[in-house]
Every structure is written in structure tokens, then in C-alpha cells.
Design goal:
203 residues; alpha/beta; 8-stranded mixed beta sheet; 5 helices; 8 strands; 26% strand; globular
Length: 203
């Protein structure tokens, strides 16, 4: 399977708490819900198309707990069957049981376990949110594709998907579009380490 990282971002790179004010208030974050005002039907179609490619899902603990609380109750949502019925994996050092079936808890050497999942047959194992998990798998060279939905807003504070000191990653643009509400969608393929050069006369 291909590992795909899907993230909502602000223009200043914040990935924390896009969906509601109380989604993730860790470290005193008070500006959650910044993505919601920009949702439109065009992006809903894009997101549904991505979801339809998934054969499994991979979460960090916090995102998993939010999804596990909400999605079993959303049985009338068109994506509910995919999310509720597909295999799910949650990376956590603290969870000992997971009630959102079918779920497998990954502890210990998570990158090694994800590498093993990649060798299994299937299309995509998708990471939704879970920025810290995404960062660790990017550092391990295990992310094949990155899908970013960038909202036209500067949040000004909050946890970022690509923090200072993060692992450098080369990317190749596969697709892009902008929705009527201004969400910029970019799809990238990971290409390993970035290339570097010098700009000058004759370049």
C-alpha cells in the first residue's frame, strides 16, 4: 500500500485544530476551527474522491480518539461506511484498547510496523491529520504522497506541519486546483532529499 498524508493547513502552515474551537487545545491553542469557514462543495467532492481510494487508515492517538468519538454516530454521512468499516491503525504508547472496530494499536517501533503495512496489498493507507505522526513518517522516508488543503487564512499561532528543524523532503507536484472559496489543493509525490543549486548569471 501507498502511505498518503492528508493535511488541512493555514497559509502560515498551522495544522492544529482546523475543525472546531475545541478540537485540539493543547499548549493553550485557542484559534481552532479556522478551516471550517472555507469549506465548499468543490472541496467536499475532492475530499470524497481521496477517501474513496483508501483501503486503510492510520492515526495518531489524539486524531484517532476524535474520529472514534464522532464517526460511529455519523451513519448518514456518505463517507461513514468507508471510515467505520475499513481497517484502522493507531500509533500510541498509551492506548491499551481501541473500541472503534476494526482497529489495531501500533506501539513500539511504529515506523517498522508502517513499513510492514506498506508491503501488504492494497491501494492507500491514509493519514488524516495526525501531524506529529506524519512528521515522524516523513523523517523515516515512509510517506509516498502528501495532499495539502490550504485555507486562505493566517492563524498566527499553533502547531505546524513543517516546523523549524524538520526533516527536508523533496517533492514533485502531481496535481493542484483551487476551490471557489479559496482552498488551494496541492498533491505532491515524495522524491527523497531535496536538490540544491545556485542561482546566477547563465543559470
Amino acid at each position: 500500500m501507498k502511505v498518503v498524508l492528508q493535511e488541512f493547513l493555514s497559509l502560515d502552515g498551522v495544522s492544529q485544530g482546523p475543525g472546531s474551537p475545541d478540537e485540539d487545545t493543547s499548549d493553550g491553542f485557542t484559534r481552532g476551527g479556522w478551516f471550517v469557514p472555507h469549506l465548499d462543495e468543490a472541496f467536499e467532492r475532492v475530499a470524497a474522491g481521496w477517501l474513496g481510494r483508501a483501503d486503510a487508515f492510520l492515526f495518531g492517538r489524539r486524531t484517532y480518539e476524535n474520529f472514534a468519538r464522532d464517526w460511529p454516530e455519523m451513519t448518514d454521512h456518505p463517507s461513514a461506511d468507508i471510515l467505520n468499516g475499513s481497517p484502522k491503525y493507531v500509533a500510541s504508547r498509551t492506548l491499551t484498547e481501541a473500541g472503534w472496530d476494526p482497529t489495531t494499536i501500533l506501539s513500539g517501533d511504529v515506523p517498522a510496523q508502517v513499513a510492514e503495512l506498506k508491503r501488504q496489498p492494497g491501494r492507500e493507507i491514509q493519514i488524516h491529520g495526525s501531524a506529529r505522526l506524519g512528521q515522524s513518517l516523513l523523517a523515516a522516508g515512509l510517506v509516498d504522497e502528501i495532499r495539502l488543503a490550504i485555507a486562505p487564512v493566517v492563524v498566527g499561532s499553533g502547531r505546524r506541519l513543517f516546523p523549524d528543524g524538520g526533516t527536508p523532503v523533496g517533492l514533485r507536484l502531481l496535481d493542484h486546483e483551487t476551490t471557489p472559496s479559496g482552498i488551494a489543493v496541492y498533491v505532491y509525490e515524495s522524491t527523497g532529499l531535496p536538490e540544491y543549486g545556485t542561482y546566477g548569471a547563465g543559470a
